[in-house]
Here is the input.
Amino acid sequence: MMQQLRIGTRGSALALWQAGWVKTRLEDVWPGVRVELVPIRTSGDILHDVSLATVGGKGLFVKEIEEALLSGTIDLAVHSMKDLPGDLPQGLTVSAVPEREDPRDVLITRHGETLSELPAGTRVGTSSLRRQALLLSLHPGLRVEMLRGNVDTRLRKQREGVVDATVLAAAGLKRLGLTPEHSHVLDEHVFLPAIGQGALGIETRVDDAAVLLVRPLHHEATAVAVHAERAFLRRMGGSCRTPLAAKGTIINDTVRLRALVASPDGRRLIRGEHAGPTAAAEQIGATLAETLLAQGGKEILEELSAISA
Here is the structure.
């Protein structure tokens, strides 16, 4: 039995809350184990004034943490699943996925308007191409502006008038105990969440003792749903440069996956749905990706690739 566990985490308030939650749970399950948090500054935290789509995508939030895990500096890492690229480095694995928090998005406006009530020209801040595409698809008159930073930073910039509205993950707000005034939870069937949104992933080295220590925190239904979502992501070859969304739902022994691919301007948005037994989660995600690619998603991805080349 390991006597000490070092958890690698980003240093934002939300990341520290998430890692602290895992720390508390592990100490409850294994009273003899001492758990230490090791904050690590990632490239995504350093490059905070540019769009992720132009500097390497979501992997920038995990690269340095995974390097520390591979080198043995830390024993496990706690990530927001939506920050994890489709493929993990050789030697690493997601050993536990705790139960998911609310996966939906929240629109925060200055005067209480809903999305449909926002006047044309309203500046909505987000750094997510998925959110941008959905916003413009549902309300073409909006002005979507890049807004990066942690949750507190984005809320502060809105209060200061940098933007008129912003969209944040409900999970992050709930975990931090924040209830911004004039918040509207967006329907996940229309405003489809990011892949893995609301879920945490506990990453370890393959065949390391930490694999067994974190297993009591695992929630199988969440893991299966996220597995289907990430299978879709891998087959689409998606990144922060690609407006993709997917949400898996488990009912009895069936996983139902809804997904979309869109152009960043929201003019083309291709949705689909596929379901099957939970044991076939990987195939369900891949099959739905193939369907959307055949329906026009391939052309969207090729155009985005040409633009970023």
Q: What stands out?
A: Residues 137 and 266 are 4 Å apart (CA to CA).
